[in-house]
Amino acid sequence: MSAPAYPTTWRRPPQIIRDRRWRIAIQIGIVVYFVLAVGTVEVNWARVQAGLERGQLFVLGFLQPDFTSRWRDISQGLIESLTMTLTSTVVGVAISVPIGIGAARNLAPRWVYYICRSIIAVSRALQEVIIAIFFVAMFGFGPLAGFLTLSFATIGFIAKLLADDIEEIDEAQAEAVRATGASWGQLVNYAIQPQVMPRLIGLSLYRLDINFRESAVIGIVGAGGIGATLNTAIDRYEYDSAGAILLIIIAIVMVAEYSSSYLRKFLQ
Amino acid sequence: MTEITHYSQVWSYRTPRGRLLLWGGWVALVALFVWCWQLMTKDTIWFFVADAPRQAADIGGRMVPPRWSYMDELWGPLWDTINIATLGTLGGVIMAVPVAFLAARNTTPSALILQPVALFIIVASRSINSLIWALLLVAIIGPGLLAGIVAIALRSIGFIGKLLYEAIEETDAKQIEAIEATGASRAQVLSYGIVPQIMPTFWGITVFRWDINIRESTILGLVGAGGIGLKLQASLNTLAWSQVSVILLLILATVVLSEWVSARMRHAII
């Protein structure tokens, strides 16, 4: 009686897709896609080669940033960005609190719920830059258009997360408050608000951080802020000023991220 | 018999000191807001603001019958946009994986030099939006798809790198120890101990980032980096609002579709 032939080498079992036929089909599909995709990407290699020198200039500019010669423009852009960030976060959060309460199924009647959820969906579906284009066309160039854009984008973000949070509260506390004969306003104030407040503050700080990053972008389409200054600097090939602006953006984002994560830890 | 101490008859939520601090905080916030508002609107031309509703109605009126025949010109740019997102995600993943292994506490070869460098790469990539990357790259390597692909790839490093190095740090140490106990080299520990543990997270992150990249690549054309944004820019410049509405609807449909695909794929993986 001979021993059955056991496999002598171990093969790593497949992890994601277990069916062998599917694996082969997907691999073939990926290869076909790449051939098609790379085939349609037209690259002007002569232009790229010429650009590499310019890339070196940019890296040099980044290493030796020039803060002084354009400081007036940079500081103006920074002030616009920072004020835009703060005001739009405050206004956006103030508007999104009632919308968030209205979009929580356990607090609002059905028709209010649907209206608020569709406001949130519209605000989340569109990119900030596209909204900024429209607001610039309507309100003219400058930080006011940026402020409106960021406020609008904040509504979708905060209201959705707040509504989801309210739907997940501890119902026992709400029922206890309701059992004392509290009105709807008292219910929100004494049962809901204490439970969601730490998270609302955390989300607002996080959104403050996001709004600053976005304020650097929407300037490119004319909505004011540091992005407009950066766009001008790059258009004029002043890479040392552009490098300085980018370093300032990175520094502010880092400070905002660390301080907001510290504050959030402290609050929770 | 002891004296009964006097309790306040009215229950209040906070102590008087707490209330005072709270009010102080609110007043400070309002003051800061008003100050910022005044700084911000110093140069605003209020005539344009008052005119805004009329402008909005005007633009809305021009957008309303979307020029559907314009769709025929949009399929090429849409294909380009999807390629920017997909190839950009691929490039980002290729660069992000080594950075993530260098940044993770348990796999970094040198905690003194390489880990801070890797963390700085992640932060720098995350804090600069892909549109700004595209702006720089269009100036450096010229307008076109390549600038868009590289911009998306550079922006993706930070996102994928951060989530992946957190996943690496959260791997189960026991499995790694078991592999080490067999006498495996460092590379073998990585390959048999860590990689299988982070594989599902890795695919989840990649698909999620691909979805975000589809969203972002639709607007990269505004600064000249190819894709459907170029058509948007051209239509905006010629004030062809009926074409703008077609493009926006197409972008919206693409984004919704990619979100659905990525949700399905992540559901299947995790």
Describe the structure.
The complex is a heterodimer of chains A (268) and B (270). Chain A has helices at residues 20-40, 45-63, 71-102, 110-125, 128-139, 143-167, 171-179, 184-218, 226-235, 239-267. Chain A is mainly alpha-helical and 268 residues long. Chain A has two domains: 20-60, no CATH class; 68-267, MetI-like fold (Orthogonal Bundle), CATH 1.10.3720. In chain A, helix 8 (184-218) runs parallel beside helix 9 and helix 8 packs antiparallel against helix 10 (239-267). The longest helix of chain A is centred in the last third of the chain and has 35 residues, at 184-218. Chain A is flat and about 75 Å long. The model of chain A has no long low-confidence stretch (mean pLDDT 85). Chain B has one domain: MetI-like (MetI-like fold, Orthogonal Bundle). In chain B, helix 3 (75-103) packs across helix 9. The model of chain B has no long low-confidence stretch (mean pLDDT 86). At the A-B interface, helix 1, helix 2, helix 3, helix 5 and helix 6 of A face helix 1, helix 2, helix 3, helix 4 and helix 5 of B.
Name the descriptors.
heterodimer, A: 268 residues, mainly alpha, MetI-like fold, 10 helices, 78% helix, B: 270 residues
Total domain count of chain B: 1
Which CATH class of chain B is shown?
A: Mainly Alpha
N to C succession of SSEs of chain A: HHHHHHHHHH
Whole-angstrom Rg of chain A: 26 Å
Q: Give me the number of helical elements of chain B.
A: 10
CATH superfamily of the largest domain in chain A: MetI-like
User: What oligomeric state best describes the polypeptide chains here?
Assistant: heterodimer
The span between the termini of chain B is 68 Å
The best one-word shape of chain A is: flat
CATH architecture of chain B: Orthogonal Bundle
User: How many structural domains can be distinguished in the coordinates of chain A?
Assistant: 2
